[in-house]
Design a protein that fits this description.
Chain lengths: 281, 226
């Protein structure tokens, strides 16, 4: 009688983890033929892209390729720039973000933004976080809301005993996390992060990256970064933008958009390969 | 800090250990099939190699991703490089088990007598012990354990020589001659499994000391080995 050697597969951790990734992805932004111009010059041209729910999407590319312009289109931040103009469509949850009648303030509540340089108000830590909810009339249970946002931004333990202190007394990394807390205090759906760690030291950067990984459970994140390795580390999807130079005019174009793993191991486009290997840009 | 990265490293190492356990099973199956001339079990060992290969590919892919996305440095870099090597050694060991199983199916129906069975049993259990020590010392970052593999390998080498001597004694009977020829390769396969276990020990030493060094140098044998 043969005693078999076949074994029941041991927990296939790696596979299990792979399977945990959502296969069917919900589309949060459906961007169609987006061209954004300042005056007559298009900064980005003909961008088609889908951004998925609870996923971190990184936007990378050389300086001037329109990365920031692109994410500013996603919460109508460019409306505030004189002469800025949008062609094409951005559907957010299926609705045209730029349709007449859409309130840009409501858009920015649902699609929050964190900038390169931490920009807390010169007020207390508490007031910084409470500011958004107060303005929007979300005054009920404000203390809980502030605590929840600070916890969400992994800052609570560091500041809970000095909520009345001026926010400017915090370190750069803490200020940036405070800005993230401020952004999530109004319960947005999406967080746009424009170079959120470029002014921070490696430890503070690492804290922000860890935080992003946690935040994606509840939010959809889009991050613009100069730091390719940061995109490789944190993002699930990566969009590579580059510059098309035509008769002296430089326009940002989307070159490649794919799973981050694919972009950094086997990109489809030669320009992406050249950029991620440091041969260009 | 960098918990996703640490988790990826942990998964890689767990998968590697899992692959090692599969190799142990394959080895036990191969030796048993050989001793009992059990073709059915030999077939099972051959098919089982797919399970090992699956882990092998998982680890290869995992390392590719980790290198591309996490830029490991220092100990992390050495760990990733060591896993890459150990993975290959384990996969090779499993291939030798397949070789043994295939040869088991090819030998004629002859009874080689207990002296052969004993010889392979000894080599098989020494290999098992070496694989276990190689995996444990890698997992426990145990330099002493890793270095002890050299002496254990010496015992397998000796057993190999003994088996070959017995094969030479088999004489000119054509059936026995064919059997003997096959068994030289089996013995060699087991001896190579021992070598791969030593190689895993060298990876443990590299991981711990950051120095590449061979425990023994086949082209410059030490007096002890000669």
């Amino acid at each position: 009688m043969t005693e078999g050697i076949t074994m029941t597969p041991v927990i296939e951790v790696a596979q299990a983890r792979k399977d945990a990734e959502p296969v069917q992805r919900d589309i949060v932004f459906d961007i169609q033929k987006l061209t954004a111009s300042y005056g007559k010059e298009p900064a980005i041209s003909d961008v088609d892209l889908e951004i998925y729910r609870n996923v971190i999407t990184a936007v990378i590319g050389p300086s001037g390729c329109g990365k920031s312009t692109f994410i500013r289109c996603l919460n109508r931040m460019n409306d505030l720039v004189p002469g800025a103009k949008i062609d094409g469509k951005i559907l957010y949850q299926g609705d045209d973000l730029y349709a007449s009648g859409v309130d840009p303030v409501e858009v920015r509540r649902r699609i929050g933004m964190v900038f390169q340089k931490a920009n807390p108000f010169p007020k207390s830590i508490y007031d910084n976080v409470a500011w958004g909810p107060r303005v929007l009339g979300m005054r009920k249970d404000l203390d809980e809301r502030v605590e929840k946002a600070l916890r969400g931004a992994a800052l609570w333990d560091e500041v809970k005993d000095r909520l009345k202190k001026n926010a400017l007394s915090l370190s750069g990394g803490q200020q940036q996390r405070l800005c993230i807390a401020r952004a999530i205090a109004v319960e947005p759906d999406v967080l746009l992060l424009d170079e959120p760690a470029s002014a921070l030291d490696p430890i503070a950067t690492s804290a922000i990256e860890e935080l992003m990984d946690e935040l994606k459970r509840d939010y959809t994140l889009v991050i613009v970064t100069h730091n390719m390795q940061q995109a490789a580390r944190v993002a699930d999807m990566t969009a590579f933008f580059s510059l098309d130079v035509d008769e002296g005019r430089r326009t940002g174009v989307l070159v490649e958009y794919d799973e981050t793993a694919k972009i950094f191991t086997n990109p489809s486009d030669k320009r992406t390969e050249d950029y991620v290997t440091g041969r260009f840009g | 800090m960098r918990s996703a990265f640490q988790q990826d490293l942990d998964i890689l190492e767990a998968t590697l250990q899992e692959e090692g356990q599969l190799v142990l099973r394959a080895l036990r199956g191969a030796i048993k099939a050989l001793e009992q001339r059990d073709e059915e079990l030999a077939d099972e060992v051959i098919a089982f190699d797919d399970d090992v290969d699956q882990r092998y590919v998982q680890i290869e892919e995992g390392i590719q991703l980790l290198l591309a996305r996490q830029t490991p440095v220092a100990t992390d870099l050495r760990l990733v490089l060591a896993i890459l090597h150990v993975n290959l050694h384990l996969e090779r060991m499993a291939d030798y088990c397949v070789t043994i199983a295939k040869l088991t199916k090819l030998v004629p129906e002859v009874d080689p007598g207990p002296r052969f069975v004993e010889g392979f049993e000894e080599m098989g259990s020494r290999c098992e012990e070496m694989i276990r020590i190689a995996l444990d010392s890698f997992g426990n970052r145990d330099l002493e354990g890793a270095e002890s593999l050299v002496e254990l390998d010496e015992l397998i080498d000796r057993a190999n020589r003994r088996v070959v001597e017995r094969i030479l004694e088999l004489g000119g009977d054509p059936e026995m001659r064919e059997y003997g020829l096959r068994m030289v390769i089996v013995s060699r396969a087991l001896e190579r499994i021992g070598d791969h276990a030593v190689d895993i020990g060298e990876q443990t030493a590299y991981l711990l000391t950051a120095e590449f060094r061979e425990f023994t140098d086949a082209s410059h044998p030490s007096p002890r080995k000669a």
